[in-house]
From TrEMBL, chain A:
Residues 95-284 form the ABC transmembrane type-1 domain. Belongs to the binding-protein-dependent transport system permease family. It is a multi-pass membrane protein. It comes from the Bacteria. This is ABC transporter permease. It comes from Evansella alkalicola. Pfam families: BPD_transp_1, OppC_N.
Length: 299, 314
């Protein structure tokens, strides 16, 4: 049903309908100022995270107890924390932590989920039933609690967060993929490939998968925000990224102790989380509208 | 309807079975010997033998699972390794604040979220719609732990309107309890409220476009009546689905909210037990939360019958 809206990378490049499709996509996507605005914010954050060493004014780990808990000043634009570390530099390095965790867990979840969803949707039957029930079980369970359970077993740390987020996010991909496959499977060109004797794997990855890509791209963008929010929450609770690595959630938690004297310590990293999650959500919404207007509101 | 109910109960049981397996296996996922990890290096052989026996780790795996599950069904969740207290009692003691704040926030998010979405849809394109849509975008992106701290800073520390942290039971002092519960509930329910408003808006827009709405309006029925009687009834169904999906969100969020507002609920119990490596308590809390979420989900599904008569007569 959605064959006409996919990017159709498996088709001949530069055929006229393809170009028209891309033009329409860019027109809708870049037609909304708010999407461009948040897209630029995202680019800026990604740039900052990659070049954190060059952008940050100080070493985010350099302690200076004589200069602890300073209010914002010309030297330290966002002040210093309880160990005298420059808050701005730590916020900048925190962007890197957030993006790393987000990108790794979402890529893992998307790859695993897509394959699982393809298998469930394509083969159906008992395999589909088992996979669907597993998906139900994971979705019915709060991801934060799952992360805590994993934390109880293997301890706090970045990999605990990544593992928990991967498990928590995989079902959404499997579910979307499965639904798409069920629709695409009935199309005539899939039947045609079966008739000419293409094997299952070839049909799945060459024909079914490319036609299901649009909603997956949208989901990836939106989930990056979800993952960053969850990582921040887990680091805030002390189950996620641990000291001394700079992570926004942990910084909010540290700052909570000095809320009366230095509210800035908690406020600054929180604003960053809000901004980046908002940016991923807005860009994700924009992508959804541009890739397929019919998907609006469906994810 | 009966068939629908039976099918949903069957699915719920399977989901619970999978989750119970996960909870049970948790203790076996600890790298190395779980007993050594729990007791630490200074444990005597005698202590190790006793805990192994207490946890039943000396028996074959399927036997362990069955006896654990049998205990859970009978309300026996084992004994806490750290507190040396019955896990069931620990949970029962910590449950009221969590349930109180959780239900309050769920109600707030529905009672505020759905009408906001409907208003935005009816006034589509206007400044009210713009305001509601923008606020819900922000509300979905705000980290709730940070919002809680912000709230404490503003309403408790600066304005002094609300208490800083803690919890008072409504049976103890009803009005004081409201003052303690309002902020955590709002913070916990905000993202759910935003998501429900968004869903209500989009499904309302979908319904308003239908022919029967145009017919009703052209028959001269007042717009308000058409919205309430004709449109809302159909638009609410997908909103109920989303509301059900938000339940795990609220349960998970309660861990964070209880930590921020210093509420001694079940969420904090889980967190403390994670730090204490008190696996038996973690297992107990997990299975109780899983049952609670599954039961609440089942209730939401059954409420479809009320909202959507088509399901009732299938």
């Amino acid at each position: 049903m959605r064959t006409d809206t996919s990017l159709g990378k498996n088709e001949v490049i530069d055929s006229p309908p393809q170009r028209k499709e891309l033009k329409r996509f860019l027109k809708v996507f870049l037609g909304r100022k708010i999407v461009i605005f948040f897209g630029l914010i995202l680019l800026a954050v990604i740039f900052t995270a990659i070049f954190a060493e060059q952008v940050a004014p100080y070493d985010p780990y350099a302690q200076n107890l004589g200069n602890a808990l300073q209010p914002p000043s010309a030297e330290n634009l966002l002040g210093t924390d309880s160990l005298g570390r420059d808050v701005l530099s730590r916020v900048i390095f925190g962007a890197r932590t957030s993006l790393i965790v987000g990108i790794i867990s979402v890529s893992l979840a998307a790859s695993i989920g897509v394959v699982i969803g393809l298998i469930a949707g394509y083969f159906g039957g008992i395999i589909d039933s088992i996979i669907s029930r597993l998906i139900d079980a994971i979705i019915a369970f709060p991801a934060i609690i799952l992360a805590l359970a994993i934390g109880a077993v293997i301890g706090a740390g970045m990999w605990t967060v990544i593992l928990a987020l991967t498990i928590g996010l995989t079902p959404s991909y499997a579910r979307v993929m499965r639904g798409q496959v069920l629709t695409v499977k009935e199309q005539e060109y899939i039947k045609a490939s079966e008739v000419i004797g293409a094997n299952n794997i070839r049909i799945m990855f060459k024909h079914v998968f490319p036609n299901c890509i649009s909603p997956i791209i949208v989901l990836i963008t939106l989930n990056l925000g979800v993952a960053i929010l969850a990582e921040a929450a887990l680091s805030f609770l002390g189950v996620g990224i641990t000291a001394p690595q700079a992570a926004w959630g942990a910084m909010v938690s540290e700052g909570q102790r000095y809320l009366v004297s230095n509210p800035n310590l908690s406020f600054a990293p929180g604003v960053c989380v809000l901004l980046i999650v908002l940016a991923f959500n807005m860009v994700g919404d924009g992508l959804r509208d541009a890739l397929d207007p019919r998907l609006r509101g469906s994810i | 309807m009966t068939q629908f109910i039976i099918q949903r109960i069957y699915q719920t049981v399977i989901v619970l079975f999978i989750l119970s397996l996960f909870c049970f296996l948790l203790i076996h996922m600890i790298p190395g010997n779980p007993v050594l990890t729990i007791l630490g290096d200074e444990a005597t052989p005698e202590e190790i033998r006793m805990l192994t026996e207490e946890l039943g780790l000396d028996r074959p795996l399927p036997m362990q699972y069955l006896s654990w599950l049998g205990g859970v069904v009978q309300g026996d969740l084992g004994t806490s390794i750290i507190y040396r207290e019955d896990v069931k009692d620990l949970i029962l003691k910590r449950l009221p604040p969590t349930v109180h704040i959780g239900i309050t926030s769920f109600i707030i998010s529905i009672v505020a979220g759905v009408p906001l979405g409907v208003i935005a849809a009816v006034k589509r394109g206007g400044w009210i719609d713009g305001f509601i849509t923008t606020s819900s975008n922000f509300s979905m992106a705000i980290p709730n732990f940070w919002l809680g701290i912000l709230g404490i800073y503003l309403f408790a520390l600066n304005l002094g309107w609300l208490p800083v942290q803690g919890y008072v039971s409504p049976t103890e002092d009803f009005w004081a309890s409201q003052r303690y519960v309002i902020m955590p509930s709002l913070v916990l329910g905000l993202s759910t409220m935003a998501i429900l408003a968004r869903q209500a808006r989009s499904s309302m827009l979908e319904v308003i476009r239908q022919d029967y709405i145009r017919t009703a309006i052209s028959k001269g029925i007042k717009t308000r009546v058409v919205i309430r009687k004709h449109a809302l009834k159909n638009a609410i169904i997908p909103v109920v689905t989303i509301a059900g999906l938000m339940l795990p969100n609220i349960v998970g969020g309660s861990v964070i909210i209880e930590q921020v507002f210093n509420v001694n609920g079940i969420g904090r119990l889980v967190l403390q037990s994670v730090f204490n490596q008190d696996i038996v308590v973690v297992q107990g809390c997990l299975i109780v939360l899983a049952i609670a979420v599954a039961a609440a989900n089942l209730l939401v599904d059954l409420s479809y019958g009320y909202f959507d008569p088509r399901i009732r007569y299938k």
